[in-house]
């Protein structure tokens, strides 16, 4: 069952239909697709000519390993899916914007720290300090650490958070009342 599922997933990369749409011959397409042998393409061509013939299985273990379809997760991850560009992943767009700011801040943090140290170094000549200040101002606007917001992880609300749990007070109370927060219970006296 698992192998048939993998074959269906790998069917997206079917050589014959891809080659017939974009290339003049199937052999040139076979050279471009990793894990496809020329014998497999030749078998597929003969199967296309004779409709009663059983098609050759071009999804060998080598091809599944090349496409990394034999490892968990058994699906092809899309780059846009990993980046979280789907609205169901974040509670609102403000949260997605905050994630982008965090990534940009982490990416440019070392550069920003160096330029800031050079800018405020009074031993250096003023021309060098001014040039560092210009480069610091030219950095991406989302790389500034003060723009990072601490949002509620469920609602994306900015105010009324309980810091250790990273939750807004309404969600904290709802989860605590139902016993879904570790180590939290209603006060009783």
TrEMBL record:
Q: Which Gene3D superfamilies match?
A: 1.10.287.1480
Print the keywords alphabetically: Ribonucleoprotein, Ribosomal protein
InterPro entries, from UniProt?
Answer: Ribosomal_uS14
A GO cellular component annotation here is: mitochondrial small ribosomal subunit
Gene Ontology biological process terms from the UniProt entry: translation
Q: Which Pfam family, any one, appears in the UniProt record?
A: Ribosomal_S14
Q: State a single Gene Ontology molecular function.
A: structural constituent of ribosome
Q: Where is the chain membrane-spanning?
A: none
Q: Does the keyword Ribonucleoprotein apply?
A: yes
The entry's family comment says: Belongs to the universal ribosomal protein uS14 family.
Name the record gives this protein? Ribosomal protein S14
């Amino acid at each position: 069952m698992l192998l048939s599922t993998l074959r269906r997933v790998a069917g997206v990369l079917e050589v014959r239909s891809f080659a017939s749409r974009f290339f003049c011959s199937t052999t040139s397409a076979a050279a471009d697709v990793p894990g496809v042998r020329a014998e497999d393409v030749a078998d597929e061509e003969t199967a296309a000519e004779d409709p009663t013939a059983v098609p050759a299985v071009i999804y060998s273990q080598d091809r599944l390993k090349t496409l990394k379809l034999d490892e968990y997760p058994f699906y092809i991850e899309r780059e846009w899916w990993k980046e979280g560009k789907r609205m169901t992943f974040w509670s609102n767009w403000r949260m997605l914007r905050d994630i982008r700011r965090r990534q940009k801040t982490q990416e440019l943090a070392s550069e920003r720290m160096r330029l800031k140290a050079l800018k405020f170094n009074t031993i250096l000549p003023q021309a060098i300090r001014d040039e560092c200040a210009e480069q610091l101002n030219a950095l991406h606007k989302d790389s500034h650490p003060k723009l990072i917001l601490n949002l509620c992880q469920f609602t994306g609300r900015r105010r009324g958070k309980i810091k250790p749990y990273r939750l807004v007070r309404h969600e904290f109370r709802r989860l605590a009342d139902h016993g879904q927060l570790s180590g939290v219970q209603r006060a009783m006296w």
